[in-house]
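Hey all, sorry for the wall of text incoming. These are the two entities for the joint prediction.
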Amino acid sequence: MKVPQFSLVFIVCAFLFSAVSGEPVAWGELEQPQEEFVPIDQIPPEDQLPAAPLLIAAYAIVWVVVFAYLWSIWRRLAAVENDLHDLSKRVSGDVKRST
Amino acid sequence: MLLIGLVMFALAPLQIAGAPYESTMGLIQKVFYFHVPGWIVMFLAVFVAGISSAVYLFRQKPLADRLAVAAAELAVIFGIIGLTTGPFWARKAWGVWWQWDARLTMALILEMIFCAYLLLRRYGGPGSDKLAAGLALFGMANVPFVYISVNVWRTIHPSTSVVPQLAASAPGMFGPFVWCMVAFLVLFVVMLVARVRLEAQRAEAERLYLVLEEG
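and here's what came out:
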């Protein structure tokens, strides 16, 4: 069955609009915006995010990236050195055969 | 040198644990000790890539090209560190993972320029070395704008005055910061040397393939 192009565009637009608009919220349910700076230790406990998991995740990513990159260089170097070893053997074999 | 870098890197969390807490952000501010050195080393890698690319464009020295490729790859690696550690800090300090402000957006563009550089080198075919060198120069020109963006545009990112004034304003944080900075710099130098060696070995392998084909 062929879907008309206009219907397809309408469905895509409707999907995008519903994704962006989200759940309807009554005006009265909206919280009042914060007017001034509130230090982190004065925020209510239910609004506080634990810092330790975020900090550990940040440091873990740095460690993983550094070690993955070092391992990748080591692996690539080993592969090229193997290639070089094989090529040098083949080149020296060719030279011997030609002489 | 790799050992020194890794030992310094391994001991960095102990140094950071001993650093004082920042008064408003608390524990999460300690992301600073990896986030800022990551970006400083990223900028350094971009300058090495940019200057080497200029030398390669105007003097055609193969060593300059190898240095440019190596530094561009490191720019991407340290950029990833900066771009991933930042959002963890932002989530706690700002309440959002990401903000499309001038500093963050320009830093992302800088990272994308060097990703484009690496893609161009890998899939660009013959002549891509010179095209990529031009791209690296544009990447390098972007760095001053990324750096001053926090002073010029309205942004929630801290300004550039934090690090230069750290020794005077927070001496307890300065020692761990210098420790992490040196660890990152040592790792950068080790990785750069190893990566340049890899490019040199690849060039030698290509030369031997040509010798075999001609023979």
